[in-house]
Amino acid sequence: MIGNFPFAVCMILIALGLWTLLTRRNLIKLAIGITLIESGVNLFLVTLGYVRGGVAPIYTYAPPGARMVLPTPQALTLTSIVIGLATTALMLAFAVVIYRHRGTLDAGKIRELKG
Amino acid sequence: MTIGIHVPILAIAVPLLGAFALPIFAKVHRNLRDLWAILVAAFTCAMVVALAVQVFTSGIQLYTLGAASPTATVVQGGFPIRIVLVVDGMSAFMGLITALVGLASLMYAFQFLKEEQGKTLAMTLFFLLWAGMLGMEYTGDMFNFVFLEVTSIAACALVGYRTWESRPPEAAFKAMAMYTVGGLLVLLAVGILYGEYGALNIAYLSSKISGTPLDKVALGLLLGGLLMKAGTVPAHMWAPDAYGEAPAQAAIVLVANTQASLYGLFRVLFTLYGGALSTPAVGWLVTALGTLTLLVAALMAVIQTDLGRLIAYGAVSQIGYMLLGVGVGLTVISSRPDFGLVAMKGGIFHMMNDAATVGLLFLAAGVVKRACGTKDLRALGGLGHDLKWTSGFFFLGALALAGIPPLNGFASKFLIYESSFRLSPILTAIAVLGSILLLAVFVRAFQGVFLGPRLRTVQPAPLGMLIAMGVLAAIILAFGLVPDFFVRHMVTPAAEALWRGRDLYLAAVLGG
Question: CA-to-CA distance for B121 and B112, rounded, in angstroms?
Answer without folding.
Answer: 14
